[in-house]
Amino acid sequence: MAFEYAPAPESRGNVDIAPSYGLFIDGEFTEAADGKVFKTVSPSTEEVLSEVAQAGSEDVDRAVKAARRAFEKWSALPGSERAKYLFRIARIIQERSRELAVLETLDNGKPIKETRDADLPLVAAHFFYYAGWADKLDHAGFGPSPRPLGVAGQVIPWNFPLLMLAWKIAPALATGNTVVLKPAETTPLSALFFADICRQAGLPKGVVNILPGYGDTGAAIVAHPDVNKVAFTGSTAVGKEIARTVAGTRKKLTLELGGKGANIVFDDAPVDQAVEGIVTGIFFNQGQVCCAGSRLLVQESIHDELLESLKRRLSTLRLGDPLDKNTDIGAINSAEQLARITALTEQGEAEGAERWSPACELPSSGYWFAPTLFTNVTQAHTVARDEIFGPVLSVLTFRTPEEAVAKANNTPYGLSAGIWTEKGSRILAVANKLRAGVVWSNTFNKFDPTSPFGGYKESGFGREGGRHGLEAYLDV
Amino acid sequence: MSDRLSVFKTYKLYVGGKFPRSESGRVYEVTAKTSAADAAGQGKWLANAPLSSRKDARDAVVAARKAFGAWSGATAYNRGQVLYRVAEMLEGRRGQFVHEVADAEGLSKSKAAAQVDAAIDRWVWYAGWTDKIAQVVGGGNPVAGPFFNLSSPEPTGVVAVLAPQESSFLGLVSVIAPVIATGNTAVVVASEKFPLPALSLGEVLATSDVPGGVVNVLSGRTAEIAAPLAAHQDVNAIDLAGADDVLAKELEIAAADNLKRILRPQPVDNADWSATPGTERLTAFLETKTVWHPTGSLGASGSSY
């Protein structure tokens, strides 16, 4: 018998979205110089949430100038004063976390249980963590009185809008830089709400500037001659373009790019826990996660048993209204992303991989994609090689630990990996051989502000989080 | 003293632990630096050095990749011993290098000796770093949850090193030692005008327990050899010390294709290398790996461990 869940929607009443938003430059909301605007929609309903000013190159120049002006005083503040601003921001985020969680779910499409229990707590924690560093930089291992770089140009993606903002802004401000940040075009709202938080915190004007826009806005920020630091999270293709743009300049660059993480399950792994980890690894945030465990490498001897458990578990996932507190799988962020997932999965089928999804009714409006498994996948298949950035898991098998490692590393990416086994020495041996920046053993998709995050190879370079994350914003 | 005819040395490349000529069969003339005629190439003829081709560069990358597994997998203690052994071997051949550096850079014997002494000491300095850098830049992270969380540095992989153009030996050693100390393997492009000390260093490395392929030394036109290295898909990083601004930009653009780690030209590259370096050249070619594992919580209800 099937248990029916009554709807349990989170209220939208505590978030007040204005019909339009400006750019946030030099402490003020302002229209774009050329008057351009774009609409942001809720991916679960296609409802227009607001109309947002679209920054052009003139606006970028204005914002960089404001950040440059603010830099002198901000970098000269005692670290203890900068720390207090960041602590204020952290506190205000905590106070407004319910509002921000609902906002993020509306604008992004991810389930409220994720924004409420993962995104927002991590955002606040990140500001708390870097707040504490601001007056302790002498002790961070970069020599005495390490200097900030200047104006940081930051471009962030739509999958964790506010969390990515926190990863970028918190260390930049703690170290004494000022920032010009572009949120993604499909998820600009939480960054604009953050601008309001900066105002509430009394942050000096110009220290944080928020410029919503598309790729050309980001490109203008990256190419601006008075930007000293570029930080980008997004696709590997764009990351490479940015690396070419900053070549020959003195701009410091950190890139956090794509991934095709291997989640390796050995025959002695506790199956139920592994299944939960696999589900977390690829269906958290609809798989729109750069460090997703999108390749399941399962030891051949337990393949059938594991797949049976996994399919049973997937059949219990609830897809639907992201604001419903029981929802596991929310909406895909945009029509464009949905089209990409659809195209790649069709290619997977065409190339001969076997496709499976649980019975799953998709809402009639909005952008939706059912959880999907591919079995009989080979390493040559597109679904095993390309980052899909959606709720799509490719299952491959292996016989020996050596084969697992070879397959796991057989990708130009190197962001994350998972290992499931009860044998401690095997965990350490395999973790040692994996060319990936984050290895989760007997767990997956865990994040913490103290824990450095970032990739090997074409998943980018530089680390965010922890003591390591300071280096990206210091002249060392 | 009789006028004994001296025996010249045929300088060769050092690739995969062997001493091949350039596959292209090409050589170029290396002359001594003199105060007057340096630029015109009218200094005293010293030797013919191999003029490496792009094929030589690719062969060197293959050798460096092949050596990476064992070298990066060696214990840090072992790598330290090997680097120290390089210093020991150099000490024994000090006279030869003083001579070569003096000729190359147009230095007096005493100034050349100071360069060589500093270079030997630099090997010792970096030898001591192999088993310390992980403790300095890695460590446990106090995450807010029941997890053990450890960040450790790992070598980036195959590193192309464009040796400084002016400091033919101290500069050279100062860019090679930090790369291999942490477990990377290197393809080194020697100073274009002063390649002989670098080619002789290959002979020292071959007798210092440095496994073949860990360091590969190429001589020739820096721009010609560097271009295929910067574009090579199996090179993980590049040190641009020996590139001028124009070349450095071109190489950085080419290197973006597989997102190589880049160490841009530094102020020290064409200056005095005698100051004790920091850790920057070590950390430039390290990746940070962070491993998580649940700790469980003994005695807590609901604990599965």
UniProtKB/TrEMBL annotation, chain A:
Top-level lineage group: Bacteria
CDD domains noted in UniProt: ALDH_F16
InterPro entries according to UniProt: Ald_DH/histidinol_DH, Ald_DH_C, Ald_DH_CS_CYS, Ald_DH_N, Aldehyde_DH_dom
Lineage: Bacteria, Bacillati, Actinomycetota, Actinomycetes, Kitasatosporales
Keywords: Oxidoreductase
Domain Aldehyde dehydrogenase: 30-475
MF GO annotations: oxidoreductase activity, acting on the aldehyde or oxo group of donors, NAD or NADP as acceptor
UniProt entry tagged with the keyword Oxidoreductase: yes
The protein, known as: Aldehyde dehydrogenase family protein
Family: Belongs to the aldehyde dehydrogenase family.
Keyword Aminoacyl-tRNA synthetase carried by entry: no
Organism: Streptomyces spongiae
Automatic annotation (TrEMBL), chain B:
Organism of this sequence: Streptomyces spongiae
UniProt keywords, alphabetically: Oxidoreductase
One of the record's GO molecular function terms: oxidoreductase activity
Protein name, entry field: Aldehyde dehydrogenase
Domain Aldehyde dehydrogenase residue range list: 42-262
Signal sequence residues: none
Keyword Cytoplasm set for record: no
Stretches assigned to coiled coil: none
